[in-house]
Amino acid sequence: MVDVRENESIDDLILGGLKIIQKTGGFRFSLDAILLAHFATVKKGYRIIDLGTGTGIIPLILTTRAHELDITGVEIQEEAAQMAKRSLALNQLLDIKIINADLRKLGEEHWGHYDLVISNPPYLTLNQGKISPSEEIALSRHEIKCSLEDLIRSGEKLVKNRGKFALIHRAERLAEIIAHLNTYKLEPKRIRLIHPYLAESANLLLVEAIKGGKPGLTVHTPLVVYNADGTYTKEILNYYYGGETCDS
Q1: How far is CA 2 from CA 10, 19, 56, 82, 90, in A?
Q2: Predicted pLDDT of residue 129
Q3: What is the CATH number of domain 8-241?
Q4: Could you state, in order of their start, the residue ranges of all structural domains in the chain?
Q5: Are 170 and 123 in contact (CB under 8 A)?
């Protein structure tokens, strides 16, 4: 039996029969994490680390992408890290490791260890928007504990040579993302822009870089989230029901 507390719910991810424990009134995972988990390159036997794993949504989905994965999630908030561990126990995925730590301070035993570093980080700088009075929500939305550069610097340390670094972020920060990737020798190889509706500008982007990779960038076709009537597009539904990769 897994402990589920009074202010928590068990939510069905549909995909692979997976379930996740979340707070009923706190921060809950979004579609962004699902899109990233389906976009990143994942192969059998990969060692993967998810930076800022929250309640473990990305590690859960990655288990449906390939076999024999060695997955570690890193989360600075102790309560969220414990919730992630309980979600993994609920799904009988006890081989996935969750570390309650500051991603910027992971020890040398992690450096150059991973085939894939993946992250759905806070999108907002400290001078963007109002910071939530809830510490949990504030840390999830604003770069309070970790800036974009901190994340990319840490990713470069953790990923092995020729390994991959993947993240989702706001489209408006594309130039900044590319600049930091170049600084830390992570060569952008794949980008996909995410549009809420076909007629609207992109608001998010998916990017994957290779440590020590050669120049050469693939820009995939746009990913559109909603049909004109507000329902999910067929591609989005496939991520829930079919588990297809997000790399059209």
Answers
A1: 11, 12, 15, 12, 6
A2: 77
A3: 3.40.50.150
A4: 8-241
A5: yes
